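Objective 1.3, modelling of assemblies. Example input:
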Amino acid sequence: MTPLQTCLLVSALLFAVGFAGAVTRRHAILVLIGIELMLNAANLNLIAFWRFGPNPEALTGFIFVLFSMALAGAEAAVGLALVIAIYRHKKTSNLDEVKELKG
Amino acid sequence: MSPFFIITAVVTLLGAVFAMSLRNLVHCALAMAVAFSGVAALYLQLDAQFVGFAEILVYVGAIAILIVFAILLTRSGETPVKSVLTSGWWAGIAVTAMVFTTLGWAILNSSATPKEIPAAPVATVKNLGDALMTKFVLPLEIVALVLTLAMIGAVLIALKEDKSENSGRKP
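Predicted structure (tokens):
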């Protein structure tokens, strides 16, 4: 197994763990943590391709990760604000009980 | 791959598994910080020093604190007594298994992965600043705009709601 494949397998495992948490846990904050883990797995992919790819001097993968981190920060801020707003409105952060828009 | 890389990867994955499976939310946040530190160590071993330290600053520093604050503000710090899984959790596990099988199959059977390891690239802060200020200056400005808007939006969403029904909708 080449180093690139090892990195990609680690990041696929990280993605799977984050995905499993995001779709099975009941608490809204844990879903957000799962999404952050999935974003990190994607960033790890980008860095691995930048490191073992053919043209690392262009720094594209590197810069992509920096931008994706900035967007992850924005996403976390808005997501947690939504969780707090839902908690204030419904007095719960259990996602099974927030189903007013459920068809 | 060096044994240190394998150890770091195992620590990262264990942190992620604990962050997703522990019952107490504060413990989950701590395990998440461990997982993010492990990812930062992986970046350092992949010769991406700047991203590694940015990961520690942004994720272990800021996002972990933000999540702990959200846990305390929603008063969910104590261990729940009821089930912590959603009603259809087995379907989620099945979808996860399918996703991981597909990803793993694609990674192991891909012909696009290069066989030889290239020399370690140099990504000094000077190179990075040059690239950010010349080639990537437009995305940088857009990200600045997005961050400002996200901050304003987060403050607006989390603001205290008015007690009276229509006070915000007067013309």
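The helical segments of chain B are 3-21, 25-45, 49-73, 89-109, 125-133, 137-158.
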